[in-house]
């Protein structure tokens, strides 16, 4: 057993001897190990001074650019504001200039009639009343500028076909500021009916009657422009888009030219009270209501004189409405003319005007 242990010890000693010798040699030798510089990580190098200066210069340039941009924006905003103000002023001047031709034309035609005795001006309408004096008659002119479709309408007497009332009664009932008698009429069975073609609210009251003899139709279209003349068929009048209108005789003026007066109407009666409707180039309306003491021809106006008045006042188209005792002009709540019957006559149609 002891021999065996010794052998084992020798074996282990022989086996480890080379390693033990190597360790002793290493300890006795003066050995050193040197690693290269790139074996260790190096700290980042500080930026060069030139790069720092360049970066600073760039930042300063950016600052200057931002300041310049801000100034430019302020100038642009100021210019925009000034431009808006200038444009507003230009628009205001343009509006004034655009309205100037109308004002000049209106002043010119108004001076031909005279100075208004009364005037009503609102957002809806401007109505001017003038006194007209001549050798054989006195009368009134009513010049009307319609500013909205609600400024004028035609109504039936007592609001029914066959009914009649004075223009004053109709004006009061509707709250109108002015009113004029309209078309002719025919009596039948105690009722008073509008003569021939009559349009109410865009519809024919008693159907369409082709123009015959000297009858004409006159009224307003859907654009509140005066339309009138002789119409051979319904389609011809429908193309005018009538809103309302009435009929009577004869046509006095078309395109500023006096129309031939039928022989019957030249002398029967020679002179009489008259009611006339006309228009101007700017679509203003002109009504003439001429007084006469009676209807026997001793006073009043002839139709030729009425034509002369219309031309003198600068009218374009003119139409003779029902006259005689029917001629009535209401303004501001009262009858301003002097109806030849002594009191206003009840009639079936009226033109009314609203403030």
Automatic annotation (TrEMBL):
Pfam families registered for this protein in UniProt: NAGPA (PF09992)
Origin: domain of life: Bacteria
Keyword line: Glycosidase, Hydrolase
UniProt domain Phosphodiester glycosidase: residue ranges: 174-354
Entry keyword Hydrolase: yes
A GO molecular function held by the record: hydrolase activity, acting on glycosyl bonds
Keyword Hydrolase: yes
Protein's UniProt name: Phosphodiester glycosidase family protein
Species of the source: Paenibacillus artemisiicola
């Amino acid at each position: 057993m002891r021999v065996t242990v010794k052998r084992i010890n020798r074996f282990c000693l022989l086996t480890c001897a080379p390693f033990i010798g190597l360790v002793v040699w290493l300890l006795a030798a003066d050995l050193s190990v040197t690693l290269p510089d790139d074996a260790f990580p190096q700290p980042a190098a500080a930026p060069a001074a030139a790069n720092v200066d360049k970066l600073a210069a760039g930042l300063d340039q950016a600052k200057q650019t931002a300041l310049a941009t801000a100034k430019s924006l302020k100038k642009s905003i100021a210019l925009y504001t000034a431009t808006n103000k200038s444009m507003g002023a230009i628009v205001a001047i343009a509006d004034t200039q655009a309205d100037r031709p109308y004002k000049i034309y209106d002043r010119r035609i108004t001076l031909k009639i005279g100075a208004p005795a009364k005037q009503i001006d609102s957002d809806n309408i401007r109505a001017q009343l003038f006194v007209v004096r001549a050798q054989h008659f006195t009368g009134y002119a009513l010049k009307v500028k319609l500013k909205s479709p609600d400024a004028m309408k035609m109504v039936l007497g007592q609001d029914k076909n066959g009914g009649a009332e004075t223009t004053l009664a109709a004006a009061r009932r509707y709250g109108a500021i002015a009113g004029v008698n309209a078309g002719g009429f025919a009596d039948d069975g105690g009722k008073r009916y509008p003569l021939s073609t009559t349009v109410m609210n865009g519809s024919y009251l008693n159907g369409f009657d082709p123009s015959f003899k000297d009858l004409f139709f006159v009224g307003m279209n859907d654009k509140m422009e005066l339309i009138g003349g002789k119409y051979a068929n319904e389609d011809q009048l429908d193309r005018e888009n009538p809103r309302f209108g009435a009929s009577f005789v004869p046509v006095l003026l078309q395109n500023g030219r006096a129309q031939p007066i039928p022989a019957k109407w030249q002398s029967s009666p020679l002179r009489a009270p008259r009611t006339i409707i006309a228009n101007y180039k700017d679509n203003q309306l002109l009504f003439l209501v001429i007084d006469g003491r009676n209807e026997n021809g001793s006073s009043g106006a002839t139709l030729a004189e009425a034509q002369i008045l219309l031309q003198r006042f600068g009218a374009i188209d003119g139409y003779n409405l029902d006259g005689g005792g029917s001629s009535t002009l209401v303004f501001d709540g009262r009858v301003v003319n002097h109806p030849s019957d002594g009191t206003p006559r009840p009639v079936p149609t009226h033109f009314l005007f609203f403030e």
